[in-house]
Write a structure and sequence with these properties.
The complex is a heterodimer of chains A (380) and B (388). With 380 residues, chain A is an alpha/beta fold. Chain A has 10 helices and 21 strands. The chains are: A alpha/beta (380), B alpha/beta (388).
Chain lengths: 380, 388
């Protein structure tokens, strides 16, 4: 089993090394959303990790427009020159850059998209042996993870503990509170849902995190059964300082008492997101009025004018027309059906006519209960 | 001097809106079928509607793009194959797709042109080169890209580039927001966006619409866009009103036509766009990076002028039949928005119902007859200009 942690200094890398961790994610402030290290600091970390025979992985997850991409491409190439062989990437441009401009391999951040097997197979086919690993998103259900395990050979990495990012904008939106500085604020919705978030502002924009953190620690046995071997623990925002050892021990032993202690120490509410089932995936009630759907044959048109006790105006939209003797069935927007015998049929010049023509408006006698946008059919 | 006039791509939320968009000058209209799109609440097109829409557009030498821009889960692929084959038979001009799984699926079973949706967040030339590798024809760039960057991406990739030019903006990178998913169990990337970004929030002791973006307006930059050889400009808003659609499409059509004729842009077009403004406008990222100044702090200010209705019939020398959308009376002045040229004001002196009886007040959801006026066409939008 392979545990992956973030590290931003030599002491942390050394601590992880001492715990038997073999892979570290390094974050540069130019490439990683929450990276704080300069190019020189990252280089120092790379050298140290390599010296310890660890695998340094550079995270490149900022979504970049052209100018930003151009300004950081040399930095990426420099990391390759130092011996970095793995990049964690999200942006399609970053994926292409690593594939075409370097010989490094890719740990693909699945993200909010790529939630179907066709997408996973697409990336496997496109990147071929350059794709080392799929970084499974927190939005993937266990069924989907199982499906990937069954239908592909791609190694997966699952986050077991960490923050849950729900929105990301390149705009700095907390300037009013923080000026141009990095910082964070608690945000409470005053409208429907009464949700709350933790908002973080840095030079790359503003990030909204869900008020609960993400944890699949209690599902570890299931994930191991799927032969998943790579697990990530993201403690970058954790206020508990001494969790690393406890987590490594829990993952090794799966001791339930240890898990209780970890959750207590973590001091933050936890959610497993959509792991068990994606409740947002259910087809929610369609917001449009089903009664306004044309689901019958012999559609004539739609009521576009109503004058009580006098007339109904009908726009002829369908393949059928109205003749003087056409029996009508009219479906109102609230679902009621009325039958109507035509007493008069007139055109918009208020002249008697024998039948309507397509795309014209005709007038017929009024019938109570029929309202604007009712649908008109030939009655069988 | 302009070197290219981009295609104007307008939203078609319904068959009626599609017709209005084309009448007012759109070169192409994007529509959605009943599934696979991102606007579940919109009155999406049945297959029969798509067929009619395509025939209507093609008969006028216009294009139809069908969006399949939801991020699909495995079970959502049900029916996709049939739909794609239907669209190919229909000869729609392209499909607009977000998900690489869907792109791959469509490529395997059809020859349809594929445009990459803005939801995919393609922001740079390397991303565009990847898209070129897999046979995508056009990229609808992320709204974070500037005009000059779009030009570079086009030059580097050789693909067609489409830029959003007008309308509402996600505060988040499009396709990268899960606010609705986690707080309302509605998948924003599958048509269930709850627009939580528009909510009022509390930060410290302040009430704040801090995550609500102003709306994009790029009409002042058409010359710069023309010089950049951008292929298409997109107007947001399949859910927006007929009034919005007609006004915005007409303004950008006229702006592009002036560019084509190498004329200075008529500044009154900006005034026209202000008539359908529901939030403050800003220039997005077109020329400089949007930051905290792009927050729309007021919740909503609806500066939209009322629409009186839409002309549904013109009988030469006899009458104009108006489908009334908002009530007005004989004391009001109406402004008719022609497909081409300046708006025309009329007083509502004579007004009758369909049977010819005088009416003092036109009620919404009815028809009224107005005296015949030359040059007014079926489909013209009529505004309530002002109360006397």
């Amino acid at each position: 089993m392979n545990l992956i942690f973030y590290a931003d200094n030599i002491d942390k890398i050394n601590e992880l090394f001492m715990q038997g961790v073999s892979e570290v994610i390094l974050t540069s402030k130019n490439l990683s959303r929450f990276g704080a290290n300069s190019f020189e600091q990252v280089k120092e970390c790379i050298r140290y990790a390599l010296k310890k025979k660890m695998i340094p992985i550079i995270e490149w997850d900022i979504l970049m427009t052209e100018n930003a991409m151009l300004s950081c491409s040399n930095e990426v190439l420099s990391y390759c020159d130092l011996g970095v062989k793995i990049f964690r990437v999200k942006d399609t441009g970053a994926i292409y850059f690593i594939k075409e401009k370097t010989s490094a391999n890719i740990d693909l951040i699945q993200g909010y998209s790529n939630q179907n097997i066709d997408a996973i197979l697409f990336w496997i086919e496109y990147l071929k042996d350059r794709l080392r690993r799929l970084i499974v998103s927190q939005e993937s259900t266990k069924d989907f993870i199982q499906s990937i395990a069954e239908k592909t050979c791609i190694p997966m990495e699952i986050m077991l503990l960490g923050k849950l990012l729900v929105s990301y904008t390149p705009r700095r939106l907390l300037v009013k509170y923080l000026g141009g500085a990095d910082g964070d604020k608690d945000v409470f919705s005053l409208e429907e849902g009464a949700s709350k978030f933790w908002a973080l502002q840095n030079e790359h924009g503003t990030f909204l995190f869900y008020h609960k953190d993400f944890s699949l620690l209690s599902h570890l046995p299931y994930l191991k059964d799927l032969k998943i071997e790579n697990f990530r623990l993201d403690l970058r925002f954790s206020i508990a300082s001494d969790l690393t050892f406890d987590l490594i021990k829990y993952i090794d032993t799966q001791d339930a008492t240890l898990l209780v202690n970890i959750k207590k120490k973590y001091q933050h509410e936890l959610t497993e997101g959509f792991f068990k089932s994606n409740s947002s995936d259910q087809v929610f009630e369609k917001l449009k009025n089903e009664h306004l759907k044309i689901n019958q044959d012999k559609f004539i048109g739609e009521v576009v004018d109503v004058k009580k006790d006098e007339f109904l105006g009908v726009l002829i939209k369908g393949d059928y027309v109205i003749g003087k003797n056409t029996p009508l069935s009219i479906k109102t927007p609230d679902g009621k059906v009325k039958f109507l015998k035509i007493l008069f049929l007139k055109n918009t010049c208020w002249e008697e006519i024998d039948s309507s023509s397509h795309a014209s408006i005709v007038y017929i006698n009024y019938a109570s209960g029929i309202t604007y946008r009712s649908l008109v059919f030939v009655k069988d | 001097m302009a070197s290219g006039i981009p295609e104007l791509v307008a939203p078609g939320g319904s068959l009626e809106k599609l017709q209005i968009a084309i009448s007012y000058g759109a070169d192409a209209v994007y529509i959605a079928g009943e599934n696979f799109g991102l606007r579940t609440a919109a009155f999406n097109f049945t297959n029969e509607d798509i067929e009619k829409a395509t025939q209507y557009a093609h008969s006028r030498n216009k294009k139809i793009y069908v969006v399949i821009n939801a991020f699909l889960h495995d079970k959502d692929f049900q029916g996709l194959s049939e739909f794609v084959k239907f669209l190919e038979n229909c000869k729609v001009d392209a499909v607009v797709v977000s998900d690489f799984g869907v792109v791959s699926f469509i490529k395997k079973i059809s020859q349809l042109n594929i445009h990459l949706s803005t939801q995919n967040t393609c922001l740079n030339s390397y991303g565009a080169l990847m898209c070129k590798d897999i046979g995508i024809k056009r990229i609808v760039l992320g709204r974070e890209v500037s005009i000059s960057e779009a030009k570079m991406i086009k030059v580097q990739s050789g693909l067609e580039m489409e830029l959003f030019i007008h309308g509402s903006m996600c505060m988040s990178y499009s396709g990268n927001c899960l606010l609705s998913n986690y707080t309302f169990n509605r998948d924003s990337n599958k048509g269930g966006c709850k627009h939580s970004c528009r909510f009022l929030y509390q930060i410290d002791n302040h009430k704040d619409y801090f995550y609500s973006s102003k709306d994009l307006m790029g009409i002042e930059y058409l010359a710069q866009i023309g010089a950049s050889n951008i292929n298409a400009l997109k107007i947001e808003g399949r859910m927006k009103t007929l009034h919005y659609l007609a006004t915005v499409v007409k303004a950008y059509r006229e702006g592009l036509d002036q560019l084509k004729e190498q004329k200075q842009m008529d500044q009154s077009l900006i005034l026209e766009l202000s008539k359908v403004m529901t939030r403050d406008y800003f220039s997005g990222n077109l020329v400089s990076k949007a930051d905290d100044q792009s927050i729309f702090e007021k919740g909503k200010i609806d500066k939209t002028e009322d629409i009186a209705g839409i002309v549904v019939e013109v009988k030469d020398g006899k009458h104009i039949l108006l489908s009334v959308k908002s009530a007005f009376d004989r004391n009001d002045q109406l402004e008719i928005l022609p497909f081409v040229g300046v708006a025309k004001c009329i007083d509502v002196l004579d007004m009758t119902d369909a049977s010819g009886k005088n009416v003092g007040k036109a009620k919404s959801a009815t028809m009224v007859k107005l005296p015949f006026i030359p040059d007014i066409k079926t489909g013209n939008i009529v505004r309530i200009k002002r109360k006397k």
